[in-house]
Amino acid sequence: MIRIVSREFRPGSQYGEGMDNASRHRVVVVGAGFGGLFATKALRRADVDVTLINGTPYHLFQPLLYQVATGILSPGEIAPPVREILRRQRNVKVLLGTVTEVDVEHRTVTAIAPGTSYKVEYDSLIVAAGAAQSYFGNDQFAEFAPGMKSIDDALELRGRIFGAFELAELETDPAAIERWLTFVVVGAGPTGVEMAGQIAELAHRTLPGEYKNIDPSQARIVLMDALDTVLPSFGDHLSTAALRQLHKIGVEVELGTKVVSVDSDGIEVETVRGHQRIETFTKIWAAGVSAPSLSRQLAERTGAETDRAGRIKVNPDCTVPGHPEIFAIGDTVAIKALDGSPVPGIAPAAKQEGTFVAETIRRRLAGKAEPRAFHYHHQGSLAQIGKRMAVIDFGWIKLRGALAWWLWGIAHIYFLVGVRSRLSVALNWLWIYTRNQRSARLITSAGGESAIE
Ligand SMILES: Cc1cc2nc3c(=O)[nH]c(=O)nc-3n(C[C@H](O)[C@H](O)[C@H](O)COP(=O)(O)OP(=O)(O)OC[C@H]3O[C@@H](n4cnc5c(N)ncnc54)[C@H](O)[C@@H]3O)c2cc1C
After folding, report:
1. How do residues 101-145 score in pLDDT, each as one tens digit?
2. What CATH number is given for 6-131+291-365 in this structure?
3. pTM for this structure?
4. For ligand 1, is residue 192 a contact (CB within 6 Å)?
5. Is ligand 1 within 6 A of the CB of residue 36?
């Protein structure tokens, strides 16, 4: 039974039937991202009551957030309601709430939601709270160079990107036009590369012909990174291919470039050539992740070690040291694969960990031997660069160009949650592929709040 230890919301508002077996083991899952959702689904036949608490009512498919930001997809297409996904699973209750505290002694979590707060007891806890953006100690950059972790972030960026073209059209001062038509993306990992590539495609393929005073194809798209390579995790061969493809679609790539300052009108960087300033209203941060506050708090409460990004160093079986009843998975944790390499912070890793900890709980309850260590199986790395351009590293084969692009598309449609999302995304992609038109260009604030101060 789920016992609400204290609550400030209306009695009986969400707690229905089907979960009132007092003897059942209670599993609380924090986070309905890839890790939490897959853990919950893998518990569907287990003799447990699951309470899934998520900060939003939806499951977010983060890999396609940049397509929301660049007007290809609508938010609903990558963010189906968690309740809908789990509607047939009888042993789960979904609660909206942000978990603010884990009381490891009394085995309760406290969550808040607008106008209310509540506590839920657990016998096993799975923390899958994802990651936050990191500005490497320069949080003041966030105002002028937003990151992309949520639907709100993506919509803010969409406003800034499409708004930049609108506001450029209104300008008469050539310097101001240039500043509106310069886009800087910081971070040349998959997110930054995909984002820069899509802004370039937008400027060069979608928007030309729509404006009278400006030529969108004159837009300057700069992708920068402190490292000296793009997509470093893909290896030299594919990094070089990706760099070539980025150049081909008109993205300027500045490597070995460290951001030292960001303001509303530009960005300042240190390079081997010295200090430089780029005048631009639109800066996008796609570099660095840090652990969410819940993960730091849990580490403090349990005495668990964390890595530099604040991620909990869990045991090989994903339990928090000293607490076999608490599992932490996904981007929230630092865990090593069997060969000693760090498990990457990507969706398949979070899914596999979710399934793994669910199996551990099932085996525990059945009195069977538990698996000692999580085995990460790397299925491959994929990044789209532009139309018919992508790179894929499956380990045993490396692909680039058009074939990689088709496989990238098929894989993403396959990994999306829900048939409706898959069909809708496929249709949108077909539209942009054949017509170069984007169906989700609605913006409500041109240029973004801080960009037009
Ligand atoms: C822009 C972007 C692009 C990416 N591209 C790729 C890609 O191409 N391929 C790939 O494999 N991976 C990609 N990733 C990484 C991938 O999305 C993550 O590794 C994966 O989502 C991690 O899953 P998770 O369950 O740990 O966290 P998430 O999926 O982030 O889920 C965390 C969930 O926890 C909830 N939450 C957080 N804190 C609380 C709290 N205190 N209380 C309640 N709920 C809480 C959040 O609302 C969220 O629903 C990308 C990530 C981003 C941001």
Report:
1. 999 999 999 999 999 999 999 999 999 999 999 999 999 999 999
2. 3.50.50.60
3. 0.93
4. no
5. yes
